[in-house]
Design goal:
Number of strands: 16
Radius of gyration: 22 Å
Largest sheet: 8 strands, mixed
CATH topology: Alkaline Phosphatase, subunit A
Number of domains: 1
């Protein structure tokens, strides 16, 4: 449970801010100060990553007339949209179908088990020699951020496999625009299994479970403003040419002002939420299916409550993940466990935002790194299928209540209106008030880079 306070002193707020976030170092907090909210606009974005790759047939593109080895075990249910059916495990989404755009034709997957493409629209290797492409949240921090704001622009709450929980990177923008990342394990258990730990260890030092820039500065020293300059000078001597020095210069502008307001620290404290609201984001106990060692329990639905609280506090972009859709075996019992949690969480978020008058300003995207094979394998699972995947969009003033795109009778290939990852990002940028066809970022070589290469905003949604 995070620390709460009534009428705190500055010192108490600083201490609560650090200890409540799992003992983050000063550098973590300063990074948060740098990645700031867009107070000139209430527009925000919540990215929900279905870690592992969601099965299109068992979510929003069922094929009830296909052979059993294709259609699988689940039935279908009607939605609020005439003629549109979804998997029986999504009754709450079905009841709100007029609030969603169902994209059944997502194409162009890089086929990789990470979330880079779902964070930026690009594969992890794109512009790798320059540091890679920045996540959308980092772009917003660059284009709209100011150190004077009281909340980070971008908060990364993703867990999942190692390259999912390390996909919200600033890329060639450098560490100045890194995402703020609380220690999610303190609130939602999703530890890495041994194989994933090894996978992470084999990566470069830039990939780490917990992100830090400067170690050794604890909460007890935060209030001592007279010592901050000395700490920065010492850190500056130790930094290499990775961009850390530029980040520190920016951080030093208002080193701890994000915490002196207490607003952001309070947003991360779910215990401050009324019991009725907590109940809203708590699905009934699971009565069927099978929870794998990499799947979360129903408590994970409260991640979206945390996302809503962060947006209210001024955060412009929040990334969240649900695990684990990587169902090479036991697809159906695992979906019986996992999908009801996601279904409940999405319903809670959309209705909550709507009742608070926020839904028109908050764009929501739900997707994963690819779809899954139409044919069920010998282990009762579905394997990777980059050819097509599902996606849901809601909020943001978009014209929802429609299905976009179509697949063949086995949900194997797109037959109408293909939508790329960059098309979705172009749509999100436009909903946030950023023109992806005009805005550019300067790379380390001094060259302008457009936010997207080829993506076009989905005309159906505007």
């Amino acid at each position: 449970m995070l620390v709460t306070f009534d009428t705190p002193s500055r010192r108490q707020v600083l201490t609560a801010g650090v200890l409540g976030l799992g003992g983050l170092t000063l550098a973590d907090l300063l990074r948060a100060e740098a990645a700031v909210g867009v107070h000139s606009s209430e527009k925000a974005f919540i990215a929900i990553h279905l870690d592992g790759g969601p099965p299109q047939l068992d979510t929003i593109d069922p094929k009830p007339d296909a052979p059993v080895e294709i259609r699988g075990e689940f039935g279908t249910i009607a939605t609020r949209l005439p003629g549109v059916r979804v998997c029986e495990l999504l009754p709450k989404v079905a009841s709100l179908a007029d609030r969603f755009a169902f994209v059944r034709s997502l194409v162009g997957s890089a086929g990789a088990h990470d979330a880079f493409q779902c964070q930026s629209g690009f594969a992890a290797k794109d512009l790798q020699s320059l540091g890679g492409r920045p996540a959308l949240g980092c772009v917003v921090a660059k284009l709209r951020g100011s150190p004077r704001d009281a909340a980070p622009s971008f908060v990364d709450l993703m867990q999942g496999r190692p390259l999912v929980r390390n996909s919200a990177r600033p890329g060639f923008l450098g560490p100045t625009y890194n995402a703020f990342r609380p220690d999610m394990e303190k609130m939602f258990a999703r530890p890495l299994e041994p194989g994933m730990v090894k996978e992470l260890a084999n990566r470069t030092p830039d990939h780490a479970i917990k992100l830090t820039l400067v170690d050794g500065v604890d909460a007890g020293r935060l209030g001592e403003r007279s010592r901050l300059a000395a700490e920065f000078d010492a850190a500056r001597r130790d930094l290499d040419a990775s961009g850390g020095m530029e980040a520190l210069d920016r951080f030093q502008e208002q080193a701890a002002s994000i915490l002196t307001s207490g607003r952001f620290a309070s947003a991360l404290d779910l215990s401050a939420e009324p019991a009725s609201s907590l109940a809203r984001y708590t699905p009934p106990p699971s009565t069927g299916g099978e929870q794998s060692t990499t799947s979360e329990d129903g408590n994970a639905a409260r991640k979206l409550l945390l996302a809503r609280r962060l947006v209210e506090a001024g955060v412009r972009c929040v990334s969240v993940s649900f695990s684990d859709f990587d169902t090479h075996s036991k697809n159906f019992p695992r979906m019986r466990h996992l999908l009801p949690t996601v279904d409940h969480a999405l319903h809670a978020l959309v209705t909550d935002l709507d009742e608070r008058g926020m839904l028109g300003n908050v764009t929501i995207v739900v997707w994963g790194e690819f779809g899954r094979t139409p044919k069920v394998n010998a282990s009762g699972g579905r394997d990777h299928w980059p050819q097509v995947g599902p996606a849901l969009l809601a909020g943001g003033g978009l014209k929802v209540g429609q299905v976009i795109g179509a697949t063949d009778r086995h949900a194997a290939n797109v037959v109408a209106r293909p939508v790329t990852y960059q098309d979705v990002f172009a749509t999100v940028y436009r909903a946030l008030g950023i023109d992806p066809e005009a805005a550019t970022l300067t790379d380390p070589n001094g060259r302008p880079q457009f936010l997207l290469d080829e993506g076009k905003a989905m005309r159906e949604l505007f």
